[in-house]
Design goal:
With 125 residues, the protein is α+β, with helices and mostly antiparallel strands. The chain contains three helices and seven strands; from the N terminus they run ααβββαββββ. Strands 1-2-3-7-6-5-4 form a seven-stranded antiparallel sheet, with helices on both faces.
């Protein structure tokens, strides 16, 4: 899962204007077992696959990160497609044989999603 965090951070580097001035401050993740219900997740569908693992709550800075395990890359890609069907548009994407990343946005929210076989991270701003 650490590799997924690195991929997510690298994906964010491609959008420095959104992440400018924001630093991961070393706080500990919060374990979760259910899809969180808050202002960041209210317009997102809950993934139909995988297990909720942990979150990083930077809500005071307008950011929230969710990490999900036990899902395939195809399931993660299906989730991205579901988001696009619900009105998010792709602003950037890249992938290789091991992992992928996509940036999506709508009028109010930006999502940075990194995934590989086994896990997915969602950064919500």
């Amino acid at each position: 899962m650490k590799g997924l965090i690195v991929l997510l951070v690298l994906l964010l580097a491609g959008c420095h204007s959104q992440a400018e001035g924001f630093v991961l401050d070393g706080r500990a993740p919060q374990a979760i077992s259910e899809w969180p219900s808050n202002e960041f997740t209210e317009e997102l569908p809950q993934p139909q696959s995988g297990q909720m693992d942990y979150v990083y709550d930077y809500s005071e800075a307008g950011r929230y990160m969710i990490f999900i395990t036990d899902l395939t890359r195809a399931e993660a890609e299906a989730y991205v497609q579901e988001l696009e069907e619900q009105g998010f548009h792709r602003t950037f994407s890249d992938s290789n044989n091991a992992s992928g990343g996509v940036m999506l946005a709508n009028d109010t929210t930006q999502l940075n999603i990194a995934y590989s076989n086994g896990g997915m991270g969602i950064w919500i701003t």
